[in-house]
Design goal:
The complex is a heterodimer of chains A (320) and B (324). By secondary structure, chain A is α/β, with parallel strands linked by helices. Chain A has helices at residues 46-52, 80-86, 108-119, 125-138, 155-166, 185-202, 213-219, 237-242, 247-254; strands at residues 4-15, 18-30, 35-39, 61-70, 73-74, 91-94, 173-177, 205-210, 222-227, 230-236, 303-305, 311-313. The radius of gyration of chain A is 20 Å and the shape is globular. In chain A, 43% of the residues are buried. The chains are: A alpha/beta (320), B mainly alpha (324).
Chain lengths: 320, 324
Amino acid sequence: MSLLAVTDLSIDYAQLGGATRAVTSASFSMGTGSSIGLVGESGSGKTTLALSLLGLLPANGRVASGEIHYADESVSQYSETQWRRLRWTKAALVFQGGMNALNPVRRIVDQIVEPMLVHGTETTKQAATQRAIELLARVGIPASRARDFPHEYSGGMRQRAGIAMALACKPQLLIADEPATAIDVVVQAQIIRLLAELRESLGLALLIITHDLGVVAQLCDDVIVMYASEIVESASVRGIFHNPKHPYTKQLLESVPRFSGMRGVGAGISGQPPSLTNPPTGCRFHPRCPSVFSPCATEHPPASRLADKHVVACHLYGHD
Amino acid sequence: MTTASRISSRIGQTVLTLFIVVTFNFWLFRLLPGNFTQLLSRAGALDPAAVASLKQSFGLDKSPVEQYVLYIKNLVTFNWGTSYVSHQPVFQMVFQALVNTIVLITVAYILTVIIGVALGVFAGRRAGRLADSVTVTTSLALWSVPTFWLGLVLVFIFSVWFVGLPVSGMTTYAATYSTPFDQVVDIGLHLILPTITLVISSIAQYTLIMRNSLVTVLDEDYVTTARAKGLSSRRVLWRHAVPNALLPTFTLTWLNIGIFLSTTLQVEVVFSWPGLGSLIFQSVNQRDYPVLEVSFLTIAVVVIAANLLNDLLYPLLDPRIARR
């Protein structure tokens, strides 16, 4: 039984003149203590997917079809009250860089204590405060700084405080949206190490949403690549990095600047990410794809399983 | 900078501002057209000797610079002169008027801010929906109404159609009260219409600022965090969104005291409220410089004090300012 299972999930945003599909038929599952990286360009639907897991879609967003299961419980019929109980206790969010994820006018410790009291993780303010201070210590923030306001923290401390806050109600899953973006590389490395260490010691599952393949390589077992609202490839980290199949994944990997040799800036991917209001026909990547051939413009590529964990949606594969 | 040195430097600035205002205030009245002795002479032919003696008794025969020095000296020694017209001490006249104005403005301003902010929260959390559009449109429409006109319409309505509420003054004319409580009730009744006028015509700014500020704040990551933590929507709104959204409104509240005061002065004239507005109106008509000078200075002091209070109180709401 998996911790989280997403089956054929599609999410629409209502807009003037019709709906825009931000996530199309996404399926994946996560076991206890597993770690998945969700990779894609801005606007590929990865944050929408993450928010939908906690029922936090904006007012104009809705799940059009598909299912989300926590353990074996479906959340598709959840009321707002049921969602509230699920949030932070089953899965918690860590936001980008922690920059604005903390309320600027409330003390850090109070912000960590709050969900514990609301969810009954701790019953007294004293016990909750005690635990909040322990959590802060765990992420490397001394008790003397617990009563600070967010602006008194450095970017890295804010991100660590965000992680401590996410642990408040002992969730089994941490969803981290760009956890290492907008902070400098040294601190980035500390955050990544911290997440890896927490995963190890608490048996946390991690869903890491990022466009930084380096973060994925260090933190994740498996990778899901999204392009224009669709999952185009999923595989183990090894599979993605050493044996990428989808032309988009290949180009994404080639776009990463490397230190070896005089390659300069990575090649990048020509063209623009497609509009989701009016996506390209057939394979959504075909207008930018170097290997485009006859069926790509008209037929939507089916997902084909190439190896145990390696699934790719591309006409180049699975037609044998 | 420590809190103490921040406060003392802020108070230093305030004193400097006050000095500039006092200077400006003095020269302003010397540059205005019309003069007091001419106004008196219009009542009848005044012979030059009488004019000269009048000028002398008010110190108007001296050079402007001498008058200025004397003015500053009198100001700091609380020797604020007597009215050209009523010959009462200016201090006493302005003080009584100020107290009456404070009664009106306090009640009206507190109501304006509370109702304005409440409507702003109401509209902001329903942004884009019908209730929001109706609130915004209505408050803009009311804001566009000239205050004195609204006051006159209310005076008309309540003196012709619904007689009952007092439309003029602060107390019933020649009333005797058996208990102080009766007096308070009487003043309260007289407060109703001017207060309604002020609230209706000033509420829109607070509603709009609060609404827009809340809409922006509701989009912030920390509000999503608060929702993600499983907090109720009420708690998200009142504990996380509103305290942040209040910050611009708080500043507006203090900075706007000057504007609200000037609106109040108009309303006082319409409703014959015996406050600073009525006093200034009357003194302008009579070229009663000493009264005007002190009245204007009083207004300036009120506005400067409001700014000072804003700066001193803001850190209590926003910790980001506190320790800078």
